[in-house]
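Ligand-bound model needed. AN7.
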Amino acid sequence: MRYECIECGSIFPLEKKLYTCPKCGGLLEVEFDLEKVKEGLDTKFLETAPLSVWKYRPFMPILDDSKIVSLGEGGTPLYRCERLEEELGVRELYVKYEGANPTGSFKDRGMTVGVTKALEFGAKVVACASTGNTAASLSAYAAKAGLKCVVILPAGKVALGKLAQTVMHGARVIGIRGNFDQALAIVRRLCEEKDDIYLLNSLNPFRLQGQKSIGFEIADQLGFRAPDRVIVPMGNCANIWAIYKGFWEFREVGLIEDIPKMTGIQATGAMPIVEAIKLGLKEFRPVENPETLATAIRIGNPLNGPKALRAIRESNGTAEAVTDEEIVRAQKDLARLEGIGAEPASATTIAGLRKLLRVNAISEDESIVCVITGHILKDPQEIMEVSERPVEAPAEFEEVVRLLE
Ligand code: AN7
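Prediction:
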């Protein structure tokens, strides 16, 4: 196992604590000797063991198993969505429901690995900037590991459920009067200047290693087969890359034959990657003042933008942007046709699918998986704003029946 810079190709040993390439500042990726992994694979175990992040232990970059910090993450449902198939006009649609993770989002898959690495490196404090879910997840895993946790947030812009989790798990929370991108700049500098604070934003290459397991599980749940396409919301763009990497590694070791077309969705008010894909730009242009009701992905300068561009282009995928109105419609479709509770950022996947079908960028014959990244209860205020209020009535039978007519 080693770090590899995605820009200059330099290689570094995994025992070193690194976030970016010491030579060129590029993003780092963790690479394995996949021939060795392949030789050691227990296919019987893979076919029969229950799903979880740690089922795929040979693909996880841990040096000391005794340090693993786990809350039972992964093993989330893959729902076949027949009523949505009919509504949207597609043949085979699934939802990978990441809301079923311990803290209600996919971030837990990354944190089980990231916080384990924090212990391996001997850190006493972990830190992140966050639009909410990273904070909720890190604060829970830090509690489990007995580490202090520092969180920098955009004040007033984090969904209530996420903030509530973070304060209850005991993180030290500071809300800055600014946006996520500014919070991130502060926490990066903090971790550079204070060596005992370990950075757990998605610049941290180990978190993405845990998130690869979304790709592993989707393939596993389909009987070791890749779908034609996987649709993912993009904020900092770690997840789309991680899922791609998961499929890529499974193909390298011979567990699947193909890699799905990775398709990323952003909100129209925060769409730097979508713009770069549509215009064929080599590098994306950051958005100065990102805006969307999907606060999770209200990010103008995505940390892992270069990795997302690569995942989309190498897999022959695409990208699309959706409006707040389209997001809310998709959120209601998921909730009312399938019984699936999604936070707004996650509903972008269904909104994006609808749009891409309409412009014939996706064929109705494809098998498609939408990744629903976060639970509906993350953002209760948004739900009440876009839903009809319950009517009130006197506590009398006739009054209630009259209102039901
Ligand atoms: C529900 O918590 O960036 O593209 O600080 O919470 O990997 O960033 C959250 C992102 C999608 C985007 N869906 O994933 C944070 C944060 C949900 C999210 C994303 C986020 P990336």
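The chain has a mean pLDDT of 97.
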